[in-house]
């Protein structure tokens, strides 16, 4: 994600000047010559907040599931080839997804690039690249990611984007391909910098009111809002409108689940890997600017060890100037996505996946070990079948003592200092052979719309050396080894929204 100036939407190939205190924010990137529908002119739609010097890393997430409109089934079955659908630079595709040299798309995947640009323009972001296989299209955006299935769209945007302003366009475009809304979910963590947000994201109440205002376009937006977690700390807002017609409670659809890991105050050495100027700008006179961006994106992916988090998956990564990183990975039906904002004072990394794992503990441990944050939040949204598959996982239930996550401290090479340890801790700590431990501070869960469970938990770096058995007085050294500051960052809880 481009975390330096969220209003600029500038990929790495086109750096923008740093905004000064009195500079005017640039206009939105995407413009359309054709007249827009009336709902495209809703109140405050043109306001763009000035860049405040900090970036809201945690993403807003909108997931919309569609079903066929009776009598219009033929529209959703119409196929579009790769040339007829969303034309955009491709980062690669799975060979098994190609039929006659092109990916064949139906339903929402058949929407042309212009329609996808309309969706993104409403959220104030733009498409940078695409990764495709037989089952879905994954787009890296200037502000996070878009995933398009034949009957489902998942859109994640960060910063000061206006995600919910896409809803009316999604309803319209669904009808264009013979589909209507069946299920809608919107969620986000509480903002650290709520004053930077634009309408309709001023508060969760405002967001719900905005969603309700679309009921004249779609009666199925009549849902409910929920808050999970302590209102005096990190908490999670969820809105769900569920009108799904389920043929069988044992169907595959009912085993869906999405895991999200949001990490704050990431290790400073790890954060430095996502600054663009740490890498060679051009690798020889024949390397084009696009090739340079792709190479640096791959180098950042390898330097941070991100490939190991998505084994077997196809990856589309994007590095941003002056800093920031986004990555999509797809493997059969599932996606994984990662977004990193490395600036000091608001450093953040997220990892989300809809892989149907039965045990998420190893994945969570690997992700946390990669970034070594000071604290992190895990959210899980799962249908009843998904909760049955997950079973009694200690991360999402039981005693907090059983939900501890230990992160081994890497050993430093002989004669090397902290800066040369690939993001690892100083040799003094590494030599002790211990593990930093995160404890679950709180856990909240709720059953929504009869058959879906939402869970949120907060983990913090535990005082003491963790599982090594070392003296508690080593806590300061452990925090130093993890690149964590000695005091909290960001605004006080009184500023949270």
Features:
10 helices; 17% helix; disordered C terminus; alpha+beta; 497 residues; nine-stranded antiparallel β-sheet
Task: Outline the fold blueprint.
Elements: E1 60-68, H1 73-77, E2 79-80, E3 90-93, E4 98-99, E5 102-103, E6 105-106, H2 113-123, E7 127-132, E8 137-141, E9 144-149, E10 152-157, H3 167-176, E11 179-189, H4 204-212, E12 224-228, E13 236-242, E14 257-264, H5 268-272, H6 289-304, E15 314-319, E16 325-331, E17 334-341, E18 348-353, H7 361-371, E19 375-383, H8 384-390, E20 405-408, H9 427-430, E21 435-448, E22 452-461, H10 475-481
Parallel strand pairs: 3-7
Antiparallel strand pairs: 1-10, 1-11, 2-6, 4-5, 7-8, 8-9, 9-10, 11-13, 12-13, 14-18, 14-19, 15-16, 16-17, 17-18, 19-22, 20-21, 21-22
Which range does the strand content fall in? Answer: 25-35%
Tell me the number of strands: 22
**Shape field:** globular
Give me the number of helical elements: 10
Based on secondary structure, the structural category is: alpha+beta
Q: What's the main sheet like?
A: 9 strands, mixed
Query: In percent, how helical is the residue content?
Result: 10-25%
Which strand order does the major sheet show? Answer: 3-7-8-9-10-1-11-13-12
What is the terminal separation in angstroms? 23 Å
Q: Which stretches of 5+ consecutive residues score pLDDT under 50?
A: 4-46, 83-87, 92-100, 248-253, 411-433, 465-497
Roughly how many Å is the radius of gyration?
22 Å
Mean pLDDT equals: 75
């Amino acid at each position: 994600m481009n975390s330096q100036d969220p209003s600029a939407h500038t990929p790495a190939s086109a750096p923008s000047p740093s905004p000064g205190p009195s500079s005017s924010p640039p206009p939105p990137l995407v413009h359309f010559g054709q007249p827009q529908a009336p709902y495209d002119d809703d109140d405050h739609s043109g306001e763009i907040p000035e860049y405040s010097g900090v970036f809201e890393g945690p993403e807003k997430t909108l997931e919309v599931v569609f079903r066929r409109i009776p009598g219009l089934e033929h529209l959703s079955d119409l196929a579009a080839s790769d040339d007829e659908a969303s034309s955009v630079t491709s980062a690669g595709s799975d060979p098994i997804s190609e039929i006659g040299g092109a990916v064949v798309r139906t339903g929402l995947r058949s929407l042309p690039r212009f329609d996808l640009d309309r969706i993104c323009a409403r959220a104030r972001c733009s498409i940078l690249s695409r990764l495709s296989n037989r089952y879905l299209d994954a787009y890296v955006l200037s502000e996070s990611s878009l995933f398009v299935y034949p009957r489902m769209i998942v859109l994640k945007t960060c910063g000061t984007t206006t995600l919910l302003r896409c809803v009316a366009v999604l309803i319209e475009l669904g009808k264009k391909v013979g589909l209507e809304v069946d299920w809608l979910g919107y969620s986000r963590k509480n903002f650290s910098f709520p004053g930077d947000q634009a309408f309709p994201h001023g508060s969760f109440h405002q967001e719900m009111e905005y969603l309700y205002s679309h009921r004249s376009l779609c009666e199925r937006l009549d849902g409910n809002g929920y808050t999970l977690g302590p209102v005096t700390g990190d908490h999670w807002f969820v809105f769900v409108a569920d009108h799904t017609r389920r043929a069988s409670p044992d169907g595959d659809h009912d085993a869906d689940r999405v895991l999200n890991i949001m990490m704050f105050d990431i290790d400073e050495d790890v954060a430095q890997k996502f600054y663009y100027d740490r890498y060679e700008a051009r690798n020889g006179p024949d390397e084009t600017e696009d090739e340079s961006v792709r190479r640096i994106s791959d180098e950042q992916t390898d330097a941070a060890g991100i490939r190991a988090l998505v084994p077997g998956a196809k990856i589309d990564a994007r590095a941003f100037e002056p800093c920031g990183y986004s990555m999509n990975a797809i493997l059969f039906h599932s996606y994984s996505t990662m977004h990193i904002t490395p600036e000091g004072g608001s450093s953040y990394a997220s990892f989300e996946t809809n892989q149907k794992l039965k045990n998420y503990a190893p994945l969570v441990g690997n992700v946390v070990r990669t970034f070594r944050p000071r604290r992190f939040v895990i959210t899980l949204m799962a249908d009843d079948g998904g909760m049955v598959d997950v079973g009694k996982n200690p991360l999402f239930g039981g005693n907090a003592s059983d939900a501890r996550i230990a992160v081994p401290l890497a050993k430093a090479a002989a004669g090397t200092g902290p800066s040369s340890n690939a993001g690892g801790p100083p040799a003094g700590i590494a030599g002790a052979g211990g593990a930093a431990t995160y404890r679950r501070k709180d856990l909240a869960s709720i059953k929504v719309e009869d058959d879906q469970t939402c869970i949120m938990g907060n983990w913090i770096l535990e005082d003491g050396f963790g599982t090594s058995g070392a003296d508690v007085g080593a806590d300061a050294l452990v925090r130093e080894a993890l690149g964590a500051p000695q005091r909290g960052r960001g605004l006080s809880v009184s500023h949270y929204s």
